[in-house]
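Please, structure for the following, as C-alpha cells.
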Amino acid sequence: MSVKIFKIAFYIRLSREDGDNMESESITNQREILKLFLRKTKENFYYVDEYVDDGFTGSNFNRPSWKRLMEDIASGKVNTILTKDLSRMGRDYISMGNYIERIFPEQGIRYIAINDDIDTLYETPGLEFLQFKLMFNDYYLKDTSKKIRKIVRAKKEQGQFLGWKAVYGYKKDTNDKHKIVVDEEIRPIIERMFNLALEGNSPRQIANIFSDEHIPTPSVYAKINRDIKTTTYELWSPRTIKEMLTNETYIGNLTQGKRKKINYKSKKEVKIPKEKWIITKNSHEAIIDKKVFATVGELLKKNKNKSTSHNRQLLSGFMLCKECGHKIGINKSSDGKRYYCHCNYYTNHSKYGLCTPHSLNYKKLEKLVLKEIKKICENYVDSSSFYNKIENAKKENDFKTKKQKEIILLNNKIKINNLYIDKIYEEKLNGNINMEIFNRLTFK
C-alpha cells in the first residue's frame, strides 16, 4: 500500500497595512515557527519551497508569491500549504472560506494553520470555529483600515505631505519626506504654462505647443510606465494642462484627499468632491502668483462657457471609434447646414498620425439607429398597453398639476386673509373701531 507524500509549501505574508505587529509577525518569526512544526511532525512531509509576500495586504489574493503557489499547485508540485495562522493566508472572509471549503478540497489540497489548530485533513478543533475566526480576521482588517484612514487624514489636515510622488513642478524635501519643495528644473515650464494661458491660449493649444517642443510630460519626467508606452505617452494632454492650471499647489496650498478607495477590500479609487478636499494654505513655496492663478481660472471658465453647445445631439457620448476605441464627436459643418461625426482622437492628434480621418453624416446615422430601436420595440413591447400607460401617466401628471395650482391659490388666499386681519387689528389699536366691530370683522 503506497503512502501519500505531502509536498509542503511554506506560505508567509506580512503587511503593515493590515495592522500587523512587525516583530511578532515578522518573516523570520513565521519561518522559524513553520520549520519547527516540520521538524516535530512524524507525518510524511516533503518540503518543496517557500512563498513569501512581504508588504501585501490580506484583503485580496492579488499577490505575486500566492499566484506562484497556485501555479505550482496546478502543476502538481505542491499539495499541502502550511501557514503560521489563518490571517497569514488572508483576512478576507469570503475568499478565505471559498479557498478552504471549496477550492482546496476540490483540488485535493491539504491546508494547515498551526496557531489556529486547523488541518483540513483531520477534524481538528480549530475547524469547528473556522467561520468565527475568519469573521474576526475580516473585522480586524476593516477596523485597522478605518483607524489608518483616520490617522492619515489627521496628518494631511496638519499639512503633512503623504503622497508617494509630488505634483509636477515639486519634489519631496530630502530633509523631510512630509514636505515638498520646488523642482527648479521644472519651475520654468510651469511659469510658461500659466503665461501662455494668460495670453489666451486654451489647454489644447498649450498641450500642442509643449508636444511640438518635446517638453517631457509629467509621466515621462517621473519615468512612470516606461515599459508600457502608449502612442500618446510623450504627448501632452489638454486635460493634464487644465488640471495643472487649476491646481492650488502651485500657489503654495497643499491639496490632498482628492481620491479615496471604494472600501478596505478594494484598490479602486473614486474622485472626491472639491469641497471635501484637504487643503492646507501656504504650506510651501509658491511657483505662481495668486493673482495670476485667479485670472487664469476666470479665463478657463469663460472659455468653457463659450464652448458649451446648446445643440446637444441624441447620440452624443454613445459613439466610439471602431479603429482606436476613443470617443466619436459631433460637429456642425462650416455652412451650418449639417452635422457630421468624427474621431476625437484623430482630430486632437492629427499631426502625429494617430488613427485615421473618417467622417459620417450624423443625421442619417441617427435616423438609422432610431429606426432599428423602433423595430426592437415593436418585437418586445405591447404598443396598446404602452400607449395606455402613457395616457395614464399623462392624466396623473395633469391631476398633480391641477392640485398644485389649487394649493397655490389657497396659499394666496391665506396670505390675503392674514393681511386683512393684521389691518383690522391695527385699526382697533388705533381706536378707529370698537371691540364689537373688530369681532364681527375677524370672525365672519
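The mean pLDDT is 84. The chain has 15 helices and 14 strands.
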